[in-house]
Design brief:
The complex is a heterodimer of chains A (78) and B (134). Chain A has a single domain (2-72), classed as Ubiquitin-like (UB roll) (Roll), CATH 3.10.20.30. Chain A is 19% helix and 32% strand. Chain A has two helices and five strands; from the N terminus they run βαβαβββ. Chain A has helices at residues 10-16, 31-38; strands at residues 2-8, 20-25, 48-51, 54-56, 68-72. A five-stranded mixed beta sheet of chain A has the order 2-1-5-3-4. In chain A, a hairpin with a 2-residue loop joins β3 and β4. Chain A is globular and about 35 Å long. Chain B has a single domain, classed as Aldehyde Oxidoreductase, domain 3. In chain B, α1 runs antiparallel to α2 (100-117). The longest helix of chain B has 19 residues, at 52-70. The radius of gyration of chain B is 16 Å and the shape is elongated. Classes of the chains: A alpha+beta (78), B alpha+beta (134).
């Protein structure tokens, strides 16, 4: 098992009610499985995910060296 | 190519040109300004937040990618975070290139593409005299 920091930004933080949390997971678990475990019913179609500052599919394994999973609503900078 | 990406929490001031412009034929500046309305609602301003380490990475990737096509000589990006009042700039981009076509194209594409992938978000903040939701 590894420990990862899960970050939620902007409207994702509003929906989830938190901005940061620690979670334990297996390296072969996906961000979808991890987030579903701590936030059942979360709408994955609406948001993107990044692992260690790189966008990745919700269903890829996080890997053994993952440290940070970020839940990213549609961006709106500028 | 000289590049800089800066996040600040106060008013944006154009950074000084860091090099002599002997071979630069065009400098394009873009100021993104907060409007008085967001959709139909009057606002006091916009609140910006960023996933800053990833935003820096995405800007660097974007600048490198566009740089291969347009070959600018210098690129400065400044994005303001926190509350930005109506009428003030949330984004500043300056592109220097040998020719105006490259500078204009780079600047336009950078702003378009940052709105797709760079993790920065805005939230409207209402004016005190309105009850419409942000």
């Amino acid at each position: 098992m590894i420990q990862v920091k899960i970050l939620a930004f902007a409207q994702a933080a509003d929906r989830l009610g938190w901005r940061e949390m620690l979670a334990e997971c297996a390296p072969d678990e996906s961000p979808r499985a991890i987030v579903e475990r701590i936030a059942p019913g979360f709408d994955f179609e609406w948001a993107r995910v990044a692992v260690d500052c790189e966008y990745m599919p919700w269903d890829d394994a996080v890997g053994a060296v993952a440290q940070e999973i970020a839940i990213l609503p549609p961006v709106s900078g500028g | 190519m000289d590049t800089e990406v800066i996040f600040i929490d106060g008013p944006i001031a154009s950074p000084p040109l860091g090099r002599k412009l002997r071979e630069t034929g065009a400098v394009v500046e873009f100021h993104g300004i907060v409007r008085a309305t967001e959709g139909e609602a009057p606002v006091a301003g916009l609140f910006y937040e960023a996933y800053e380490p990833m935003a820096r990475k995405e800007f660097a990737r974007l600048i490198a990618d566009l740089g291969e096509r347009h070959s600018p000589q210098a690129v400065s990006v400044v994005h303001r975070l926190g509350f930005v009042p109506v009428g003030e700039a949330s984004l500043y981009v300056r592109v220097g290139a040998k020719h105006r076509g490259a500078a204009l194209a780079f600047c336009g594409e950078l702003v378009d593409r940052m709105k797709q992938d760079v993790p920065i978000w805005k939230t409207a903040r209402m004016r005190p005299d309105t009850s419409k939701p942000a």
